[in-house]
Amino acid sequence: MGVPTIGCGCKVCLGGDPKNNRTRCSVILGLPEGNLLIDTAPDLRHQLIREQIGIVHSVLYTHEHADHLFGMDDLRLMQFYLGGPITIHCEEIVEERIRKSFDYAFKELPNMHKGAIPKIIFKRIGPTDEPCDEASQSSKTWPKIDILGASITAVRQMHGPNFESLGFRIGNVAYCTDLSEMPESSKAKLKGLDVLILDALRPSGHVTHLSIDQAVELANELGAKQVYLTHMSCEVDYNELDAELPEHISPAYDGLSIPLR
Ligand SMILES: [Zn+2]
Ligand SMILES: [Zn+2]
Ligand SMILES: [Zn+2]
């Protein structure tokens, strides 16, 4: 929902602490060959301007929920900066949602000026039948995703009982938002992390997200050296939660910058 949340009068929403000002979830990675944006939140324009990031070279999606998708139109400018369409890496279900939700971007409309619509090339990501890593228990495995000079590992996550999302590991850092459960085969890909950014919606349980306690438990099981919690609702006050959490786990906040080593 973002914090402050529309119509909410709680102390976190009204308190004015900048660390409680939460736009919808997204991260951008400075990779060897350019900036990779993970998800296009409805706040995308504001986020890029706030962080003084003038160009996105490629996009990767965790899943197709509205809070991770609906800033996509703001990629319109990138075709001029890149000299052509921007590549979107996503699963089939995400591509289908984008094609439905942004149908105008895929039609030859009369009298449209150049730049009126985002220009996109899809690059499908997904598991293959060829087992390519020994740790995998499943017959289908994910090949590494090569984007902008980096090799990215996708990890399957349960986002509620009937829906799946993807987390991503880039070197020693993993970004795992929007999950209620991490399958065992995915946990195996998340060992030895220096930094884990992990979904933690609120103190109480939720059908599609980890609670704070569940996130801490999973983080401890995975053994990441530093953990940042994300996707938090206004039931979480930054300072109160930061004081309660163990030393190596902190709430994330808008504008947080983490080295990719
Ligand atoms: Zn509130
Ligand atoms: Zn979601
Ligand atoms: Zn979400």
What report would you give on this structure?
The strands form 2 sheets. Strands 6-7-8-9-10-11-12 form a 7-stranded mixed β-sheet. With 261 residues, it is α/β, with parallel strands linked by helices. The protein has a single domain (18-126, 144-251), classed as Ribonuclease Z/Hydroxyacylglutathione hydrolase-like (Metallo-beta-lactamase, Chain A), CATH 3.60.15. It starts with 10 loop residues before the first helix and ends in a 10-residue tail after the last strand. The longest helix is centred in the C-terminal third of the chain and has 11 residues, at 212-222. The chain has 8 helices and 12 strands. The model has no long low-confidence stretch (mean pLDDT 94). Bound molecules: zinc ion (3 copies). Residues 25, 65, 67-68, 178, 231 line the site of one zinc ion (ZN).
Residue share in helix:
10-25%
The termini sit apart by 32 Å
CATH domain fold name: Metallo-beta-lactamase, Chain A
CATH architecture verdict:
4-Layer Sandwich
Main structural class: alpha/beta
DSSP strand tally: 12
Rounded mean pLDDT score: 94
- Give the biggest sheet: 7 strands, mixed
* Unreliable parts: none
**Tally of discrete structural domains:** 1
Across the major sheet, the strand order is 6-7-8-9-10-11-12
What share of residues are in beta strands?
Answer: 15-25%
CATH class: Alpha Beta
- List cofactors, ions and other ligands: zinc ion
Radius of gyration: 18 Å
| Helical segment count | 8
CATH superfamily: Ribonuclease Z/Hydroxyacylglutathione hydrolase-like
> How would you spell out the order of helices and strands?
HEEHEHHEHEEEEEHEHEHE
Shape: globular
